[in-house]
From TrEMBL:
Residues 1-124 form the CMP/dCMP-type deaminase domain. It comes from Sporomusa acidovorans (strain ATCC 49682 / DSM 3132 / Mol). This is Cytidine deaminase. Keywords: Hydrolase, Metal-binding, Zinc. Pfam families: dCMP_cyt_deam_1 (PF00383). This enzyme scavenges exogenous and endogenous cytidine and 2'-deoxycytidine for UMP synthesis.
Length: 128
């Protein structure tokens, strides 16, 4: 199995999801080669919860990584997990080209950000 998917599955085990009980893991690889894992972290004030994808990307950025090779996302879903709109927007921000969606049954699908977020808002939209 792809190492990035394996890391996402491992990161999922750390999820803090007492409310939804839906555990998600992600792993992003920076151009430096380093891999950063992330999990979803929920809150009693539900809206403050953060997804696994954004945890992983924000961890990486806070470590100085701003260019990425790929991201993998994994959850216990019937098919490969589909990231939420907020995470699609953050993936688009960093132009991550290789996006691997996976589940725990070993099903995997590679998609592009254009497929996930067609006609998305980008920094190009407010530069005149
Ligand atoms: O791609 C996804 C979809 C959902 N979640 C989290 C948010 C919330 O904690 C829980 C249920 O939506 O799953 C993620 O982390 N990533
Ligand atoms: Zn999300």
């Amino acid at each position: 199995m792809d190492k990035l998917v394996e890391t996402a599955i491992y990161a999922r085990k750390k999820a803090y999801a007492p409310y939804s009980k839906f555990m998600v893991g992600a792993a992003v690889q920076g151009k430096s080669g380093r891999i950063y894992g992330g999990c979803n972290i929920e809150n009693a004030s539900y809206g403050l919860s953060i997804c696994a994808e954004r945890t992983a990307i924000f961890k990486a950025v806070s470590e100085g990584e701003q260019e990425f090779v790929a991201i993998a996302i994994a959850a216990d879903t019937p098919g490969p997990v589909s990231p939420c709109g907020a995470c699609r927007q953050v993936i688009a921000e960093f132009g991550i080209e290789k996006i691997l969606l996976a589940n725990l049954r070993g099903e995997q699908r590679q998609v592009t950000i254009e497929e996930l977020l067609p006609f998305g808002f980008t920094k190009g939209d407010f530069r005149c």
